[in-house]
Write a structure and sequence with these properties.
heterodimer, A: about 375 residues, alpha+beta, four-stranded mixed sheet, four-stranded antiparallel sheet, about 50% helix, about 15% strand, B: six-stranded mixed sheet, two-stranded antiparallel sheet, globular
């Protein structure tokens, strides 16, 4: 057992470091959502031109063909350099892999290249007002209609919907069968008539996610992704793909946050220092746990399973614990909003509150862990 | 990078688990004669031997020792493995020619006399020992069940020192861990056989304490895994309100939470094991992080397990309390969470040490 990187891996790390040294934008993030999103998109173009976008994708689809350890190295370097998240994260981490797995050759040729380059941004139409944690209760209907479907319903928490070209949407295609069956995954053209996107303002002040209303939206049959009525299986297995890259980036980001806090803790009182030491320990534990997971994945070659719920649960808690320390330390400035740095801490502190909610709440993760990993009996969910 | 258990390490784990499963039942270990025979079997089969040769041990030796420690913890072995290992690492740190030249033989029944009432680390030691007299007491001395030799680290005339000693008529304490006796040793009663010639004894003691902390954490992970498995099994069987109690979120979620945190802790222990042959403050930081994290999470886990069992877990006849006692014992061994957390703060915040 060891943590040593091979010659080739070290070379890759140096390569991405050099590239970041030259290309990473130094300007602060712009204020407006539109400007901010286009900033992120420009960053994704940079990544694409540098050959770093879709590193994990197979070469056959224009990706880098990187193995899990190589992906981890690049994700860590990007995060510790303070690089922003790629704008098209849904496309690259979630929908790209889904299209590769279950898409037709035509769909693969049509959609994949534009995901990589960032030309076409994707969003995810999964949650609904009455189908959050109980996602399978979704009620958006897709009714067969002349060479395709007519889709009506409402989606919510759809990130970057206002800037997206395509939406991967779960809709009920057979209401007569049990709720986990009869759901299909459709590719919706966001320019279609009948779509109304209404941005929701988050606690942070950002309109990052939206409500999406669909009124009789026509979707051609060739936009069905995978088999009819198999959307639930596709959605649940592929959601796990998103976890690996997300955790790799997140733990790298949390280490940069810890790094900024640590010098300020020298003069802090002993009880805060102790709590900060525990938070830092959690950050390091998350890091080495990520390494262990990556190493297991590299060896097994298999897809990630329910154990990713452990990683997601702990990552969310670690983020909150670390920002709780930040608030204890800087609460006075954060509350006053006295300068740009204080406002930046406020933004990230507030954002951290969502870490145990998005992508499956902490409660849902605990249910998955207890039932699928520990084998405890199912109950009322 | 290959940072998970498989191949040879997985074989070591399953071999250890299988071997120990056949040697004793946990309940039987409440009796001294069964403890003695279990200890003799472990020793005879080589599970207690030092893996690697002390300060020449490499990171892989540490990892292997960690995996054995986990299995010993899981099986509630009647031995202070972390103490035994720390004692041997001190015995072998001597400059005398030949690794065992100072009189320590593989398989010797030794205990490590390290802790004092003030704590496990030399800065907390108030006892003194010189050629004429000794004052103070070593507590929580552990390792072999019936020790022939004591590896004693204490403050001598010239500062922290390490020696081999014998003590007449050692009787075990009625400690919290009923399966693993510990001894108190009054410094005026020890008979020093030999001062170990160690170039920098204070540094060697520091290394041995960190190594012991990591192995104690590994033992605690093993014990906690077994305890969690018991609790999960019980939650899947016990019925109330007409259903298994494990179907209630109030019961299953805390168990899931503990499983998640224990898995993460396991990764931190492996990192620390790899770090114990590094020199300097990174070694200290990795040991303290693993020990602090694991001590806190395993005591929480034991509490959750007790709660899952309800009244039956509070009875003498059920094995839950034996695991709970072991986990509490290991929490204190080689430094409390508070000690290690304070050290993490000093290393990381004041000295800028990073893993």
């Amino acid at each position: 057992m060891d943590l040593a990187l091979s010659e080739a891996e070290l070379e890759l790390r140096d390569q991405v470091r050099r590239w970041l040294g030259e290309r990473l934008p130094r300007s602060p993030h712009p204020e407006g959502p539109e400007e901010r999103f286009h900033d992120l998109l420009a960053w994704q173009r940079e990544l694409f031109d540098g050959g770093w976008a879709g590193l994990s994708w197979p070469r056959a689809f224009g990706g880098g063909g990187a193995d899990p350890v190589q992906q981890l190295i690049v994700s860590e370097e990007l995060a510790s350099a303070g690089a922003p998240e790629p704008a098209n994260v849904v496309g690259i981490d979630v929908m790209g892999p889904v299209i590769m797995q279950v898409g037709t050759p035509e769909q693969q040729a049509r959609y994949l290249p534009a995901i990589l380059s960032g030309e076409e941004v994707w969003c995810q139409g999964f949650s609904e007002p009455d189908a959050g944690s109980d996602l399978a209760a979704l009620r958006t209907r897709a009714v067969p209609f002349d060479g395709g479907f007519r889709v009506s319903g409402q989606k919510v928490w759809t990130s970057w919907a206002q800037f997206s070209r395509w939406c991967a949407l779960l809709a009920r295609t057979d209401p007569e069968v049990p709720k986990h069956q009869g759901i299909s995954l459709l590719i919706i053209d966001m320019k279609s008539p009948g779509i109304d996107v209404r941005p929701l303002i988050q606690m942070t002040g950002d309109p990052e996610f939206s409500e999406v209303f669909l009124d009789n939206v026509f979707v051609p049959r060739e936009n069905l992704l995978g088999d009819l009525d198999r959307g639930w299986q596709i959605a649940t297995t592929t959601l796990m793909y998103e976890r690996g890259p997300y955790i790799a980036r997140r733990q790298g980001y949390l280490r940069t946050v810890a790094e900024r806090l640590m010098p300020m803790l020298r003069e802090a009182n002993e009880s805060l220092r102790q709590e900060a030491a525990r938070a830092l320990t959690d950050v390091e534990a998350l890091r080495f746990h990520t390494y262990r997971r990556t190493s297991e994945l590299q060896a097994s070659g298999g897809p990630p399973g329910a154990e990713t719920s452990i990683d997601k649960l702990f990552a969310g808690q670690t983020e909150q614990r670390l920002f709780d320390v930040a608030f204890e330390l800087l609460g006075h400035e954060i509350a006053s909003g006295s300068d740009a740095v204080a406002r930046d801490w406020a933004y990230h502190f507030l954002y951290s509150r969502s870490a145990t909610i998005y992508g499956g709440t902490a409660e849902i993760q605990r249910t998955v862990i207890s039932e699928r990993l520990l084998g405890l009996p199912r109950g009322s969910p | 990078m290959k940072f998970h258990v498989d191949g040879e390490l997985a074989d070591l784990r399953s071999g250890a688990r299988e071997a120990m499963a056949g040697l004793w039942t946990v309940r039987s270990l409440l009796e001294a004669e069964h403890r003695d025979s279990a200890y003799r079997s472990l020793s005879r089969l080589g599970w207690l031997d030092s893996i690697g040769d002390g300060h020449h041990a490499g990171p892989q030796d540490c990892i292997r020792a960690c995996i054995v420690a986990e299995e010993l913890g899981r099986a509630m072995a009647p031995v202070g493995f972390a103490e035994l290992y720390a004692a041997r690492s001190l015995g072998l740190a001597s400059d005398a020619s030949g690794p065992l030249a100072d009189g320590l033989q593989a398989g010797d029944a030794v205990v490590a006399a390290l802790a004092e009432r003030g704590g496990w680390h030399p800065e907390h030691w108030e006892g003194r020992l010189n050629d004429v007299d000794g004052t103070g007491t070593k507590i929580s001395c552990s390792g072999a069940l019936r020790p022939d030799l004591v590896v004693l680290a204490c403050v001598g005339a010239g500062g922290p020192d390490v020696m081999l000693a014998s003590v007449e008529g050692l009787e075990p304490n009625a400690g919290l861990d009923l399966v693993r006796p510990n001894f108190s040793i009054r410094l005026r009663e020890v008979c020093v056989l030999k001062r170990l010639r160690i170039e920098q004894p204070a540094a060697a003691i520091g290394r041995a304490l960190d190594l012991g902390a990591v192995l104690a954490a590994a033992e605690a992970v093993g014990a906690a895994r077994k305890l969690l498995a018991y609790a999960v099994e019980y939650a899947g069987e016990r019925q109330q309100f007409g259903v298994q109690i494990g179907s209630f979120q109030a019961v299953k979620h805390p168990l899931a939470e503990m499983h998640a945190r224990l898995e993460v802790g396991q990764s931190l222990v492996y990192r620390a094991a790899l770090g114990q042959t590094e020199s300097g403050p990174r070694r200290e930081l990795s040991a303290s992080m693993a020990k602090a994290y694991v001590s806190e999470i395993t005591t929480r886990l034991a509490q959750v397990a007790l709660q899952t069992f309800g009244g039956i877990g509070f009875t003498w006849d059920h094995s839950v309390h034996l695991y709970y006692r072991r986990i509490l014992h290991l929490r204190e061994a080689f430094g409390t969470p508070a000690y290690h957390t304070t050290r993490i703060a000093r290393l990381a915040f004041d000295q800028g040490v990073r893993l």
